Amino acid sequence: MRTLFLAGTLSVCSTLCFAQTYDVVILKGRVMDPETGFDQIANVGISNGWITAITDEEISGSESIDATGHVVAPGFIDLEQHGLDPWGIKVNLRDGVTTQMDFEVGAANIEEWYGAREGVTQANYGTVVGQEFARMRVHDGLVLEGGDIDFRNFFALRAQSVEDGVEGWSSVPSNREQMNEITAQLDEGLRLGALGVGSTIGYAREGITTYEMFEAQRAAARYGRLTSVHHRFHPSASTPTETQTGVNEILVNAMVLGAPLHIHHDNDYGWWENQEKLQMARDQGYNVWSSYYPWTAGSGNYGASIIAPENWEGSMGYKYEDTIFDPQLDRFVTKDEFLSFAENEPGRTAIVFSPPREQWLNDWITIAGYGISGDGMAGLDIEGNLMSWDAPYEDYAGHPRSAGSHALVLRLAREANVPLMLTLTQLSYIHAKRLGDTGLRAMQVRGRMQEGMVADITIFDPETVAEKANYTLGQQGLPSEGIPYVLVNGTLVVKNSEVQRGIFAGQPIRFPVEESGRFVPAGREQIMGILTPDTGTARPTLLDEITNSEANIAPVTTPTNQFASVEPTDPFDWFTPRNGLDDGALFFCVVHARFEDPAQAKRDYAKAMMSKTGGSRPNQSEQRRAN
Length: 627
What we know:
It is an enzyme of class 3 (hydrolase). One of its GO terms (molecular function) is N-acyl-D-glutamate deacylase activity. This is N-acyl-D-glutamate deacylase. Residues 1-19 form the signal peptide. The chain is of the alpha/beta class. Helices cover 32% and strands 17% of the residues. The protein is built from 21 helices and 21 strands. Strands 1, 2, 3, 4, 5, 18, 19, 20 and 21 form a 9-stranded mixed β-sheet that branches. It is globular and about 75 Å long.
């Protein structure tokens, strides 16, 4: 028998109701629900993985937790956990994270990816379909089979993609056929239940055209799902590639498509402008938001274009010996060392400091619209080997954000007197709310402490919870303290601050598989069909205007806002950048040239072209070069 929970009050239940024995009871804790604002000392009863009672009445269960002096909160939700290996999942459970998903890199082969985790995963798991993997197939010819095409093989696949001397996925623009093939792969992942599309366009800003990015977001929008993006110019602080310009691109796409959008690690230059725009968009009803991680340094690999000299020194003005820390050497590197690693070990982990974050962090923890996503990396030791579940926490060599991001936020907020309810919103509710609003049922029943919700619960001491991980070798993977109990789907996975061996309570976070996909190929017809109906009349060409003018014949008047939808006689791909053509051929236009007599220039051009062609009209390619 289920009790009735009212926002801001305790449930009222008959004596019969509390005669039952629950699977788990949590007693005398401070129960906090970010959605309703409920914040009271109460007892929680859990049955069959669900919260079935929140009350001040005495209750009993097969297993009992004394939560006196502790907060009973919704389990934390992380949208950027790359370390979905057993050790990475384990250390994040110690950080209170009950749902661990990768929305940036994502995965390929969605059916196999979920199948490989079923029944053997300790936390809830989910993924998006990765744009980068689709581009690797199309532009680098990689096969990419099986259920492990995700971050675990990410850097190895990047190295493989460049074996022929060209890193196609990142640097080669797609023509129409290639773009449609990539989008079709994204659609297939969405059909199979992927939570959206994940894009690493920030690492492929020369390869992914604006229209290809638009098509990727449109693929997700056809399902009502999000695109989650490491945007094009993160973290540039210089015009014309300011960080905000990259956000503008994907935000405009999301708004015109009416589609959800999540922006990764919005914790660098320009975050204030991004947050203002996102909030204004939300005020207009758009489902758009972003995440930050609470560290003054980021993490990546030496081969990343973001920290190459032209950007890191040229655009950002940073010095390598002050900002690039090598976790294996346990010190900052010189520029010569950086260049050597970038050439010979491009996949090697680098910790990248951003000094302004020390001040910005004080603001981030006060913004309710932000979410926390730790951007945790794979669990690698000092030799670069993937660690086993049993590996000591001290063996991890990498960024401490893999181990302590969520406890760090709790500590920082406590020290700054930020309301705890706001912090819990950042840690769990904001992601659950935004994902739930895409129609994802699994997130509509998580991120909340209410009756009728899934019992993903994190119990922590608000006075002592803190990160233990830091940048010092041997301490980079230390688990957080002050989080003694974590329940996943009603099962105790962390008990007395120990992750329980062999307890695989994680459930898939996934959309239902659909029988058929929703892919629509991009083409000229699609664009013209959106712009205007076909009236059966063609817009006059420049040459028609010139010829009619010479004959004193009035040119045909084009109906207002009507344009031709006639296929050109020669093939012309609207979607392929013409990088190899002379700029003059691209941008010279006789109509806008700075001649003293533009009309005479038009006549001269027409006569010259007709003379060149023996008195015949120039073909369409020649007309385009003129126009």
